[in-house]
Amino acid sequence: MLNIREVKARIESMQDYSGSLRVFRLRLADDFSFAPGQFVMLSIPGLVDSNGRKIAKAYSISSSPDEKTLELCIVHYQNGALSPPLFKMPAGSEVTVTGPYGLFVLKEPVPLGAVFIAGGTGLAPILSMLRFLYSKGFKGKLWLFYSMSEPRLFLFRDELLGYQKNNGLQLVASTSNPGANWLFEKGRVTDAFPGHAAKIPKDSGFYLCGPPAMVIDTVKMLEELGYKKENIHREQW
């Protein structure tokens, strides 16, 4: 296991996908090792609760371990303890990262035809895995089923389409609120997956991450379709 450390960092850049979803790139002051799929606890120096305890929240890492910055996908909650002050901080501000944590990591060796399933910001740890695999020259066939609540929340769309075009990623994107210009599938993951199941072997390895209801429903669907429970690795918020 990797050692848990507390490291200072600065916000290098931010990208908004909506008023409530922002991707933060952090420049760490020291070396920081993690495995694809793990998460960190993020805190702001001096931010404490009414009892004087440090406020820290868990966020999965979306960057690959071989990148020079740490990337986090963060949702703004109006009554949240951390996200409101964080979203007011400009680039260059200091934050603290503690970790890494979590056992939702890639199993080695990664089998051909591995299937990744993500809902919303559950894409973050999945993307870390994909970025890591492709940076190492992985040539096998991989699937990604990715569902978001609306098209504007299609995180890292251009990057994922690039993996589809250049690396052979089997990308199946879906949303329950498609709108007129949506070019992908409609509905939730559980609506999109069955139409592709015939092309996915029953002994495939699965990595699922997303809201609890989505993960529970997807696991149930996979088991009903005959996929092996021991091959389904999951993480839920």
Describe this structure in words.
The chain is of the alpha/beta class and 237 residues long. It folds into 2 domains: 5-101, Translation factors (Elongation Factor Tu (Ef-tu), domain 3, Beta Barrel), CATH 2.40.30.10; 115-236, Rossmann fold. Helix content is 19%, strand content 35%. The protein has 5 helices and 12 strands. The chain has a 6-stranded antiparallel β-sheet with strand order 4-3-6-1-2-5. It has a 6-stranded parallel β-sheet with strand order 10-9-8-7-11-12, sandwiched between helices. The longest helix is centred in the middle third of the chain and has 13 residues, at 123-135.
Keyword list:
Rossmann fold, 237 residues, 12 strands, globular, 19% helix, six-stranded parallel beta sheet, 2 domains, Elongation Factor Tu (Ef-tu), domain 3, six-stranded antiparallel beta sheet, alpha/beta
Strand-helix topology:
Elements: E1 5-18, E2 21-28, E3 39-48, E4 54-60, E5 70-75, H1 83-87, E6 94-101, E7 115-119, H2 123-135, E8 143-148, H3 157-166, E9 170-175, E10 185-186, H4 189-192, E11 206-210, H5 212-224, E12 232-236
